[in-house]
Amino acid sequence: MRSVAILLPLLLAGCLSVTREPDPPHTLAGAPLPARIDYHGNPRFLPASVAEAAPDATDTLDVVYRTETQYENSSPLHLLNPLLEFGYPGIGTDLTVSGRLEIRDGAELLKRYEAQCVVKMRRSIYRLRGPSQTELRAEGLVVVRELIEAQMLGDAVALEALPGGDE
Amino acid sequence: MTKVSRIALGVMVLLCIGCAASGPRFEAVTEIPREKALVYIYRPYTVLGSGVRYHVAAQGSDIVYLEPGGYFPYFAEPGEVEFWAETEARESITTDLEPGETYYLKGSVGIGVMIGRPRLEFVDGSRGAEEVAECKRLPPAP
Fold this sequence. Notes:
The complex is a heterodimer of chains A (about 170) and B (about 140).
Chain A (H helix, E strand, L loop, with lengths): L1 H10 L4 E6 L11 E6 L11 E3 L8 E13 L17 E15 L2 E16 L9 H22 L1 H5 L7
Parallel strand pairs in A: 2-3, 2-4
Antiparallel strand pairs in A: 1-6, 4-5, 5-6
Chain B lengths: L2 H14 L20 E7 L10 E5 L2 E6 L3 E7 L2 E8 L3 E8 L4 E9 L6 E7 L1 H8 L3 E2 L5
Parallel strand pairs in B: 1-7, 4-9
Antiparallel strand pairs in B: 1-4, 2-3, 2-5, 5-6, 7-8
């Protein structure tokens, strides 16, 4: 019995699951819309369907991109779960990552695209290495970026009609 | 329970309980330097896990050795910043900081195998302001 109690946690030490809802659509972004971009985050997470306009370009639209991440760690009540001792993957973090891209012409809002992704990670207490909240956030931001790119691709005809959209 | 077991249990309990931070009382920052963001890094005092302390680092250097009941005001470069801490496992959290804004990064201790693991979370302004006001100022990491 004692050996089972030692072996079981070792077997379950690798228990880790990461899920994303929804999964990324894996579509390719269409031709980027040139605009003045207002975004202060990592350029890696900016939808590729927009691009900074040339400095001397006239009649340029404004694009505002904002993201938000909300974290929720597993409830402390999980610590009362006796299965944790045996490697049950009950500890984790849920992240809700959301993004909003607005296309403006001065004060006028022309288009708004929004997307949200929930990333869930569960691990056992014996798992020493696993994705950090930073890595989970990055996964969520990539999915949100791709969801917005897919929405903009589906809206390509309307976007082409915007100033600079046919460039 | 044998005498040895009782002593072992007593030692384990003592190892899990630590002292609270003992610096000056909380004083709010009145002016944020230009082109910087203010991040209050703090850890409310709780008995459980108070024996576990860890450094919080960001932007390439240690910021503070975070003790229970302590806080440190950190002026960060704006943009995407990763904060991290490590005991038996490393935890990190990243956010986009805006210049002139105030953020509250709360530290705590989660369950681990040999020792508690650091937990870091950004909390909203009203909750953060309330909790950090109960903490005492820690010195910067050497």
